[in-house]
Amino acid sequence: MTNPLVPPAGPQRVLALAQLTNSVGDGAYYVTSALYFTHVVGLAPARVGLGLTLAWAVGSLVGVPLGRIADRRGPRGTAVLLALATGLAVASFLVVQGFVPFVAAACAYASAQSGLAAARQALLAGLVSARERTGLLAHLQSTLNAGLAVGAGLGGLALHAGTRAAYLGVFALDAVGFLVCAGVLLRLPPVAPVTPSAAGTAVAPGASGKPAVSRDARRPGVLRDRPYALVTLLNTVLLLRMPLLSLGLPLWIAERTAAPTWLVSALFVLNTGAVMAFQVRTARGVTGLASATRAVRRSGWVMLGACAVFALSAGASPRVAVIVLLVGAVLQVAAEMRQSAGSWQLSFDLAPADRVGEYQGFFGTGVTVARTLGPLVLTSLLVEWGAPGWLLLGAVTLAASYAMGPAARKTAAGRAGEEIRLPVPVPAPAN
C-alpha cells in the first residue's frame, strides 16, 4: 500500500523532503506569530492585521513576475534563491522593532513565499510527468500537513513558555528550515529554462540536444489570458473555505452553538489527519481535465452538504451539536480533498508548458485573495447571518464548482493548435 507521506524515490521524494523541511518551521510560526508581533514586538493587533494584509497583497502581485523568472532563468536555481530569501525574511523578524520595519519584513516574506511557490511548481512540472503531478501534489499536501502538525506542537510549547526567547526560537527554527529547504532543492537535477529567441519563439534544450521550439512566446502574458483568469477566479471562490477551520468554525461554535470550545481543536486535528491519510487516495482518480472538473463538481455538492449540516448545529443541545459538527467536518474535508485534487490538475493542464512558473504564480494568487477576503466573507455570512449564511456559502461554492467545467473547456480549446513542448531536465554538470 502506498504511504501517503512517502512518494516514489527520486525527484518526487526530494521534493517532498524539501516540503517537510520548511513546513515544520511554518507550523510553529503560524501558531505563534500573532502573539509575537503583539506581545513581544509591541504592535497593536489592528496594525499587525493591516501589515499582513499589505504584505500578502504585495506578494500576490510579485508572484507572476517571479514565476516568469523561474521559467526564463531555470526553476531550480530560482527556487533555491527564493528559499534563501524567505529564510532571511523570517530571520529579519527577529530584529524588527516598529510598524514600518515590520511591514517591510512582512512584504519581503510574502513576496519570497509567493515566488517560491511558483518556482516549485515550475520545477515539479519539469521533473515529473503530467500523469504523475496530481498524485505527487497529493503526497506533498500530506507531507505539508504532517510538518505543520509537528510545528504547531512545537509552537504550542513556545506559547506555554511565553518568553521572548521561546518566540525567537520559533522564528529561528522557521528561518533555518528554509535554509535547509534550499540545500535539499539543490539535490534535484536542473530543469532547462525556456528563453525567447531572436525570432520571438521560446527555446529550450530538447532531449536530443536540439532546441525545443514553441509558438507560445508571442502569446500575451497570463494577465491577458482571460479564460485562465476565469478558472483562477472560480478557484478563488472555492478557496474561501480555507479560513473555515481557523476562523469561521471557531466563531460559529462560540457564538451560535452550545458545543464546547475544545471542539475547535478536535476539528482541526480531524481535518489534518484526514488529509494526511486520504489525500493521495482521493487524488488517484484525477488524471486529466475531464476527471479534474468532475472532482471539482462533486466537491461542490459535498461542500453544500457540509454547510447544511453545520447550519443544523445552531440551537441543538451540546451533545447533538458536537455530533452534527463532527459530521459536517467530515463532509468538509472530503470536499476539500476533491477540490484540491481537481484544481491542481487544472492549474497545470491549462497552463502553457513553457510558462508554468508564470501561470502558477498567477493561479497561486487565489490562495492569497481567499486568505485576505475569506475572514470578512465568513464572518459576515456565518456569525451575522447564521444558518442562511451557511446555505448561501454552500450554494455559491456549488455554482462555482459547476462553472469550472465550461471555463476549463474554453481554456483548453484556446490551447488547441498551439505547438508546446515541455521543458525537460538536463544533466547536472560534472564536478
From the structure above, extract its key features:
single chain; 431 residues; mainly alpha; Growth Hormone, Chain: A; 3-stranded antiparallel sheet; 14 helices; 73% helix; disordered C terminus
How can the largest sheet be summarized?
A: 3 strands, antiparallel
Shape: globular
| Average pLDDT over all residues | 84
SSE string, helices as H and strands as E = HHHHHHEEEHHHHHHHH
Task: Please identify the structural class as seen in this structure.
Answer: mainly alpha
Per CATH, the class of the largest domain reads: Mainly Alpha
Detailed description of the structure:
The protein is an all-alpha fold and 431 residues long. The chain folds into two domains: 11-191, MFS general substrate transporter like domains (Growth Hormone, Chain: A, Up-down Bundle); 217-415, Growth Hormone, Chain: A (Up-down Bundle). It is 73% helix and 2% strand. The protein has 14 helices and three strands. The protein has helices at residues 11-40, 45-73, 75-92, 99-127, 130-161, 164-185, 226-238, 248-256, 263-283, 289-312, 318-349, 356-363, 365-384, 387-415, and strands spanning 195-196, 202-205, 211-214. It has a three-stranded antiparallel beta sheet with strand order 1-2-3. Strand 1 (195-196) and strand 2 form a beta hairpin. The longest helix has 32 residues, at 130-161. The chain is globular and about 60 Å long.
